[in-house]
Amino acid sequence: MSAAFLIAAFSNGPIQAQTSSVFVTGLNEPRKIIYAPMQRYFLVSEAGIPTIPNSGRISIITNEGERHTLIDGLPSGITPPDNSTSGPSALWIQGNRLYIAIGNGNSVLAGPAPGSEIPNPNPNSPIFSSILELRLPVFGFRFNRSNYNLDSADHARLADGEILLLRGQTLPPATLRLVANFPDFIPSPRPDVPTNVRPSNPFGLVLHSNTLYVVDAALNNLRTVDLENGAVSTAFTYPQRPNPSAPFGPPFIDAVPDSLRLFGNKLLVTFLTGFPFPAGAADVRQYDLENGEESRLIGGLTSAIDSLPVSEGGLCATIYTLEFSTNMLIPNTPGRLQRFSSPSGPPTLISNTLVTPTSMAREPSSGDLLVTERVGGGRITRISNIPGSGPEL
């Protein structure tokens, strides 16, 4: 198929204006959204309801905007310092295997001094900061009110290495197992708080060549998990960065890696950065899976929360970037969605009205983008007729 034909194909017919509309509501603190190509639906991780322990869930979202619970009762809890909900976060699906990253939940508590954190002697679950594998039925099944559900005893069984057989009233059986259970925290003593710790918070996930790659938004590292033997190692640690807005805030800020995408033989990693979240200090970086080299790909962002590489029409690859907010110091300042035809820019602005966006996925037949937002408890906004974007061919 020639390039001229592709261009003509996209040019024929009336040009429709870009639209943005609320597609799904009623989510419980959404964190990540992915498209499941074999199943032809979307999957959303939800951190849970703040007032209900272990209310994390994974929802199925159809292309018609219907929400169905896939699995409920996953680990969740309130985490300091802002008392936000932490639970299911990153997702990756390979065939019928769904990998689920679980955040730090309430494994730590606010310490006795500002900015300090101490271990929680009674966390909601023994499998915070972990990776689970849910093996779904290989054949389709009808959506209904009967979903897979876990209780506290199931969490303990998973922590002990048991593989759970899950059944719904009418759903075919599925299995759930613990792939990796990272330490909930590492010691980080301070002169004023000797028991201070730094929590772990898995927040990005990619599977490549039977190895899971996991970025930790709290420990600022990239881990690997060997699916054959379960071995866990640290592939890369992201150093602190100079604070360009100093003396406002500390002299150095954390990198805060919060998303992973696979793009050829490279991992694309987005960075939120730490307080005071200086404008233009966030970026998208790449990690070469062949030689371990790490470098910047796209700079000049603010509170970057996700990226999405797309081969559009087979002509070239573009990268969408999503920013949680353009000013983290003012609550509910909208974020920003942009498209880069080249890493060096300039970008094309797609939207600057998204409020607390957390992740995005692309519907391949239309080129529409679905963006999860935490506003109002949780919703999905669908952006259609994006100029220059079309179906995958």
Output the structural class: mainly beta
User: Could you tell me the number of beta strands?
Assistant: 34
Alpha-carbon Rg, integer: 21 Å
Proportion of beta-strand residues: over 45%
Task: Work out the helix count.
Answer: 2
Description:
Helix content is 4%, strand content 47%. It contains 2 helices and 34 strands. The chain has helices at residues 3-11, 152-159, and strands spanning 19-25, 30-36, 41-46, 56-61, 67-74, 77-79, 84-86, 88-94, 97-102, 108-110, 117-119, 130-135, 148-149, 164-166, 174-181, 185-187, 197-199, 202-208, 211-216, 221-226, 232-237, 241-242, 252-253, 257-263, 266-271, 282-288, 294-301, 304-312, 316-323, 336-340, 348-351, 357-362, 369-373, 379-384. The radius of gyration is 21 Å and the shape is globular.
Topology:
Layout: H1 3-11, E1 19-25, E2 30-36, E3 41-46, E4 56-61, E5 67-74, E6 77-79, E7 84-86, E8 88-94, E9 97-102, E10 108-110, E11 117-119, E12 130-135, E13 148-149, H2 152-159, E14 164-166, E15 174-181, E16 185-187, E17 197-199, E18 202-208, E19 211-216, E20 221-226, E21 232-237, E22 241-242, E23 252-253, E24 257-263, E25 266-271, E26 282-288, E27 294-301, E28 304-312, E29 316-323, E30 336-340, E31 348-351, E32 357-362, E33 369-373, E34 379-384
Keywords:
393 residues; mainly beta; five-stranded mixed β-sheet; 47% strand
